[in-house]
Amino acid sequence: MTAASQSAPRNRVAAPAPASPNPDRIAFLGAADGETGAGEPIVVQALCWPTVPEAWIGLNQAWRTLRIGRGNPSPYTPVAAGTSSWIRQCAPQLAEPFQGTSAAEESSVAALLARTPVQIAVSIHGLGRSSGATSPRTLSNCLVAYDRYLRGPLRRACTMLVCRSQSAETDRLYLKDLDQCRAQMAGATWLRDMQLQAWTDPVEPLPLELAQLAAASVMRHVLADGDRDPVFDAVSTKLTNDPFPRGWVAKTGRSSSRKRG
């Protein structure tokens, strides 16, 4: 089995969310690719959105407070090659305050995630009965779950969706998928205003790293046949949908399929 593919750490410092008059109306999409021991490709997408207006601002403030509290107010510098953990590979800024404390890295980042008022919808393609059922890059499963969330009282839809820019072809596929979702989800009027931005700057917003972290943790859970870690446990508490196909059973012997409201 191979680990989920992740981009190598970049030399970057914390960045604010993309310019918007309403930061609370920005959602972030993370993605992770991997393959099973049999060579079957799996794609995980994680859509993260704020549940309170100050969620993304609070995440940045909490992160800066942690850095200063741990005596590291200087700009972020990458760790030495070959010593990077899976968390630092997909979310180096979120992990940066905990450099040198690898034993506590997962639990510390998980605690930061758990305190952030967000919810997450996850889509897995290539696992069990979902294999080959849909386009490997479709956003529909995540957006359908988000649409269900929006039916609750006093909930405003996000108007911007930010993902990590990959190849030009992949970025075009995301735009195509969003257009297809608009056609398929005609009753979701909020989708008419949703704009997709592929983030090209090497300095990524912390919420985008959080979305990448969520996708990677689910991918690790799948490839490890259900093994859990603190980050996955934190992600699980934020899920608005069950991303695992009915009947999928981890090596623990328990089905991961469970009903969510």
The total count of helices amounts to 8
Mean pLDDT: 81
Estimate percent helicity.
25-40%
| Poorly predicted segments | 1-14, 129-136, 252-261
Q: Which of globular, elongated, flat, extended, rod-shaped describes the shape?
A: globular
| Helix-strand pattern | EEHHHHEHEHEHH
As laid out across the biggest beta sheet, the strand order is 3-2-1-4-5
Features:
261 residues; single chain; alpha/beta
Question: Could you characterize the architecture of this molecule?
Answer:
This protein is α/β, with parallel strands linked by helices and 261 residues long. Helix content is 36%, strand content 15%. The chain has helices at residues 55-69, 86-90, 92-95, 102-115, 140-150, 168-184, 206-223, 230-238, and strands at 26-35, 41-50, 118-125, 160-164, 195-199. The protein has a five-stranded mixed beta sheet with strand order 3-2-1-4-5. Helix 4 runs parallel beside helix 8 (230-238). The chain is globular.
